[in-house]
Amino acid sequence: MAKRRADGLSKEVIVRAAAAILDDGGEAALTFRALTARLSTGYGAIYHHVANKSDLLAAATDDVIARVVRGAVADAEPREALRTVALALFDAIDEHPWVGAQLSREPWRPALLEVYERIGSLLDALGVPERALFDAAGALVNYVLGVAGQNAANARLLTAEEADRSAFLASVSARWEALDPDEYPFVHKAAAHLREHDDRAQFLAGVDLFLAGIATLR
Amino acid sequence: MAKRRADGLSKEVIVRAAAAILDDGGEAALTFRALTARLSTGYGAIYHHVANKSDLLAAATDDVIARVVRGAVADAEPREALRTVALALFDAIDEHPWVGAQLSREPWRPALLEVYERIGSLLDALGVPERALFDAAGALVNYVLGVAGQNAANARLLTAEEADRSAFLASVSARWEALDPDEYPFVHKAAAHLREHDDRAQFLAGVDLFLAGIATLR
DNA sequence: ACCTGAACACCGTTCAAGT
DNA sequence: ACCTGAACACCGTTCAAGT
I need a labelling partner for A49 at 20 to 30 A (CA). Which of B11, B26, B128, B162 fits? Predict the structure, then answer.
C-alpha cells in the first residue's frame, strides 16, 4: 500500500496544486498550462492521473468539503451542532469561493453525501419525524449550498481588497435607495440594511428560521 | 420611441436568439460563432449591441426572470402568493436550466431586485416584524436560488430523455443503499426516498418549512 | 451608424515519441 | 508505467476595412 511520493506525480499532488492555484487566482487562473508550469511537467502527465478539468475541479472540491465535515466538532446538542456544521461550511466556502461555484454546479458528489449524512442524522437526533426528515434535510442542504453559491459569486465580484466591499455595497444600496418607494417599497427600505448587513449573521439567521420551522413539525 | 425592427439588429433580437440557443443546446452551445450563424451576421455586429458574453447571458437571464415575476398572479392571500411566486421561479428555471446557473453566478442583477421586492413585500404583508424582515427575505431568496442552481445542475446532468432520470436516480439510490448503515445511517435510509422523490414537491416542502419558521417570529 | 470577417491570443485535450 | 510537448480544434474578442 506504500505510495511513491518523493518524486513522481499522484492525483493527490495534482489536486493540491490545483486548489492552491484556485485559491490564489480564482477559477480563471486554473488552466492546464498553469498547472504544468507549477508542477514542472507536461500535459500528458496530468491527464494520466486525472480524467479532465471537470474531474480535477470535482476532486479539489471533495477534498475541501471532506476536511470541513470531518473537522467540525461533534457538539452534544444537535441544534447547536447543526449551526456549527452550517457555519463551518459557510466559512470554508467563503475562504475558497471556487468550492461554492463547483457545488452549485455538480451535486451528487461524494462530498455532498457526507454533508447530507451529517445534517440528516443531526435532524434525526433533533426529533424530526421520519415522514418529514428527508424534505427537511434536502431543504437545509439546499439553503446552505444556495448561500454558498451566492457568496462565491460575491467573492468573485470583489476580488480586490476589503475597502471595495463596502464601496460596492454602498453603491448597490444607493441604487436601491434611489428607486421609487411606491413601486419598490421593500427594496427601498432594505437599502439601509444592505449597507451594514453581515453576510455571516444573515446566513445564521436563515438557518435559525429553518430550525424554527422544523421545530413546528414535532 | 419607434424602434426599427424589420431589418437590422437590436439587443433584444440578439438576447432572444441567445436564449433560444441556450434552451436548445445548453450553455456549451452558446458561442459567438453559433450566434453569428443564427443571425447571419458578423461578430462586430453583435459586439456593437452587447458588451461581451457575460453581458449577453445576464441580459437573457434578466429577461426570463422579469417575465416570471411580472407574470405571477397577485394572489390575495400573501402565504399562498409566496408559494405561487416560488413555484413559478422553480418552474421557469426547470425549463431554462441556464437561468439557474447564471443566477447562482451573478447576483445583484436587476432581475433579482424584482424577486427581492416581490418576496420581501409579501413577507411584509404576512406580518413579519421589520427587525426580521430582511433576514427572512434574504434566506427565502437564497433558498429559492439554491434549489434553482441544484436543479439546473441536475438538468445539465440529464440532458437526455425522461427514462434517464429514473435510471440515474436508481443508480444513485443503489449506491447510497450499499453504504454501511452504521457509518451512514441517514443516507442509507434516504436511499429509498430518493428513488421516488419529486423535486417540485420537495422544493415546496422547503418553502413551507421556511414559512413555518417565519410564522414563529410574529 | 452599423456591419463584415480575417486575425489574435488564448483554451482543453490528444497522441506520437521518448525514458 | 510514466512522462514530454508539439499539434489540433476549438474559444472570446478585436479591429481595419467596408457600406
Answer: B26
